[in-house]
Design brief:
Helix content is 73%, strand content 0%. With 249 residues, the protein is mostly helical. The chain has a domain of 118 residues: Leucine-rich Repeat Variant. This is PP4R1 phosphatase. InterPro entries: ARM-like (IPR011989), ARM-type_fold (IPR016024), PP2A_Regulatory_Subunit_A (IPR051023). Keywords: Repeat.
Length: 249
């Protein structure tokens, strides 16, 4: 009743390998690109019409097809709602997390947008996997780590101070020592955002422990770049007024 059945059948047939050989080698990518729009048109009540096609595309041998889906999975989650997302999209999302960097960057760029749609218990499971984003296929792919730091600044609001201290703090400290200055600079903002999280949620003890760790790790670092990092962290922290003067002293 929404769209003509022959039109839907024609769209679903785009994943047929024979069509890629005889019609267009990029046809599967085009199908993946337009899938969120088709899902929105059909509505979540008709997701069953697209589910098999989506799973086929998500396992396509061409990384460009999987990359296209990775960049739009957060939009599809909004269309489908939390229950269908947990049942049908989370397994595919987990697969993308272990894929090539060209695919992983798709989920990384919208990591916050996807995680905020999950229930708290399901969301908490990803705390253990965020560390994996620090490691890339190519260590010179510094923009990947830069994007991770940007996303973590947003993701902080999704977790409580204890989870931030136990899991996200370690990632922030690692990124602060990155070889690329751009990554280090955005990581200083992440560190300050973590301090804001602690002091804004009555977790000053965690904040003080984190500050002491920063002092030991950077203020007394034998390398000048570490001491410079501490100065920059202080600069960002003072400009944002996230720490009281008493705690700063």
């Amino acid at each position: 009743d929404i769209i003509p059945q022959p039109l839907l059948d024609q769209y679903l047939s785009m994943t047929d390998p024979a069509r890629a050989q005889t019609v267009d080698t990029e046809i599967a990518k085009h199908c993946a690109y337009s899938l969120p729009g088709v899902a929105l048109t059909l509505g979540r009540q008709n997701w069953h019409c697209l589910k098999d096609t989506y799973e086929t595309l998500a396992s396509d041998v061409q990384w460009k097809v999987r990359r296209t889906l990775a960049f739009s999975i957060h939009e599809l989650a909004v269309i489908l709602g939390d229950q269908l997302t947990a049942a049908d999209l989370v397994p595919i999302f987990n697969g993308f997390l272990k894929d090539l960097d060209e695919v992983r960057i798709g989920v990384l760029k919208h990591l916050y947008d996807f995680l905020k749609l999950l229930h708290a218990d399901k969301r908490r499971e990803y705390l253990y996997q965020l560390q994996e984003f620090v490691v890339t296929d190519n260590s010179r792919n510094w923009r990947f780590r830069y994007e991770l730091a940007e996303q973590l600044i947003l993701i902080l609001e999704l977790y409580n101070p204890n989870d931030v201290y136990d899991y996200l703090r370690h990632i922030a400290l690692t990124l602060c020592s990155d070889k690329v200055s751009e990554v280090r600079w955005i990581s200083f903002k992440l560190v300050v955002a973590i301090l804001q999280k602690f002091y804004g949620n009555n977790a000053s003890a965690l904040g003080l422990n984190f500050i002491n760790e920063l002092v030991v790790r950077f203020r007394h670092c034998p390398k000048w770049v570490g001491r410079q990092a501490f100065a920059f962290i202080c600069q960002v922290g003072m400009c944002s007024l996230c720490v009281s003067m008493r705690a700063f002293n």
